[in-house]
Structures are given as C-alpha cells and as structure tokens.
Task: structure prediction
Amino acid sequence: MTRQLISSGSPFEADMAYSRAVVDGDWCFVSGTTGFNYDTMTISPDVAEQAAQTFRNIDTALTQAGFALADVVRVKYILPDAADFPACLPVLRHHLGHIRPAATMIAAGLADPRMKIEIEVTAKRKG
Result:
C-alpha cells in the first residue's frame, strides 16, 4: 500500500508544510489537531468545547483515511495550562473511554494563544 496524505483543508497545513494525517499501510498517524472549526476557522474559548471539536476534526481525518476512533492505539494531549485538563476529561472519556489507548498528557505552549488543547492520535487497522 502506498503512503496516503490526508488534508482537512486547514490553512495551517499548507503554511506549516504538514498533512492532517498520513496513512502508511495499516497505520494512520494524525497530526496534532486543535479545536478550530475548519469550515468557519473559528475556535471556542472553552477548553472542553475545543476538545470536543478536536475529536470531530480527528474523526473526520480518520474516516477520510478509512479508519475510526475505535482503531486508535495511542493518544497525546498537549495543553498550555495543565489545570485545564480536568475540564476535558468528560470529553475524553466520551470518545476514548471504551477504547482506552495508551496516552500521554503534556503541558506545553501551542502555536496560537487561542488554542487550549491539541490532540494527536495514532491508529492501527485491525487485521
């Protein structure tokens, strides 16, 4: 299988020279994704809503790549303010609670001060 590049159409991808996701064989690597609504290029000031939109964006990329959230085996959460993480937990449990992938949470600065969470996932096709 050849490498497949997935794009959301976000201007961030062209500006920063990356793909929303890359499929390589049975693996799908989804880039760090934030809570921007790519149709309107708006972002909620609420961290939990950003987390929910981030999962919508990730789900769209996975679907386009022929994967699903159920295929996720690894997730990384990046938040500028670690104190915001508890507000995201209900959203994380909703999307990944039944999957329970390996996970890491990092507190670090993000590219845009409006961004309160960034999520990266790796998925493996079940075979």
